[in-house]
Design goal:
The chain is built from five helices and 14 strands. By secondary structure, it is α/β, with parallel strands linked by helices. The strands form three sheets. Strands 10-11-9-12-13-14 form a six-stranded mixed sheet, sandwiched between helices. Strands 3-1-8-5-6 form a five-stranded mixed sheet, with no helix packed on it. Strands 4-2-7 form a three-stranded mixed sheet, with no helix packed on it. It starts with 6 loop residues before the first strand and ends with a helix.
């Protein structure tokens, strides 16, 4: 099983409240003992908590149902039943919890730190609560309140400032490795990247988080290749880098292909701010870079070589300016 898991389905349940007790005092020197049944304990609640040291949902795999403990029943002598402990489910930053039955997003951990998701059931009252002048020996109590269940889909969406998008073998992993502290797997064949990668790019004492996802191919929006499965990981990024292999065909057509797939995928990805980066200037003709710039005169276009590091400093400076312009206003 892969150590990177970005989606799990769970049924979460809060605990049932404990039943109230039916009991009467039976003491040698108390001839008219009254009811003394204690209340049941509250069922455990379900809390979802963001934990910043987590990077995947692998710890939730195989746990189809998770329930908080029930409250304990009340006891004689007015003793209260023990409350069930709260169940805490830890998730990485950026996780979204969706109610499967309604399709609604219940909580987004891009904004929240901890959420009480399901309240535990209240404990039932013991018979001591129901004694009156007319009814001094009630022989009944309340049942505990039932807990609540929710069928959930928990999705991880990486928290990145810029998403890195391109065809297989465009050099995304190499660029991420050259610009950041990330050490992704790099090889000379397509689909080297099988899971999303995050890297922190630092320049002029400022940081930018860059996310690389597996390569997009034509038809990705219809489920071809790997990219469509992971496009959700750049859904939070307000800016995207289109990485184009200048040595492979028409770079302008590659941009159009990526645009089409993002448009078909939706969620506004095709309308995000972007930088076009032509890679492999060391093995491509100068005309390829010129063609890319002429085809998209209104875009920021950089032509670089990750292999020789030519142009990377200028690209890094622009990325930092790109991200921090909004933060500084």
């Amino acid at each position: 099983m892969s150590s990177f898991v970005d989606e799990v389905n769970l049924t979460l349940s809060s605990g049932h409240g404990g039943a109230g007790a039916v009991s009467f005092r039976r003491e040698k020197y108390v001839p008219r003992g009254g009811p003394d049944g204690g209340d049941g304990g509250k069922g455990g609640s379900v809390r979802i908590r963001q934990r910043r040291d987590l990077r995947t949902l692998v710890h939730l795999v195989g746990k189809d149902r998770i329930s908080a403990p029930d409250g304990r029943a009340g006891q004689k002598r007015n003793r209260h039943g023990a409350d069930g402990e709260d169940l805490v489910v830890d998730v990485p930053p950026g996780t979204v919890l969706i109610d499967v039955d309604t399709g609604q997003t219940v909580v987004d951990f891009a904004e929240e730190e901890s959420v009480l998701l399901l309240e535990g059931g209240r404990g039932g009252k013991g018979n001591a609560h129901f004694a009156t002048a007319r009814h001094q020996a009630p022989r009944f109590s309340q049942k505990g309140e039932a807990g609540i269940s929710m069928n959930c889909r928990i999705e991880l969406r990486l928290m990145a400032d810029i998403g890195l998008l391109g065809l297989p073998n465009a050099g995304k992993s190499s660029l991420l490795s050259a610009l950041s502290n990330a050490k992704p797997r790099i090889a000379s064949y397509p689909f080297t990247t099988l899971t999303p990668q995050l890297g922190v790019v630092r320049y002029a004492e400022r940081d930018v988080v860059l996310a690389d996802i597996p390569g997009i191919i034509e038809g990705a929006a219809d489920g071809h290749g790997l990219g469509t499965k992971f496009l959700k990981h750049i859904s939070r990024a307000q800016r995207i880098i289109y990485l184009i292999d200048l040595s492979d065909g028409d770079p302008a057509e590659t941009v159009k292909l990526l645009e089409r797939e993002l448009q078909r995928y939706g969620e506004g990805l095709a309308d995000r701010q972007r930088i076009l980066v032509g890679n492999k200037t060391d093995i491509s003709e100068d005309a390829a870079c010129t063609h890319l710039r002429d085809s998209y005169p209104d875009d920021d276009v950089f032509c670089v070589s990750v292999a020789t590091r030519d142009g990377l400093r200028e690209l890094t400076a622009r990325m930092v300016e790109f991200v921090h312009a909004d933060r500084d206003t």
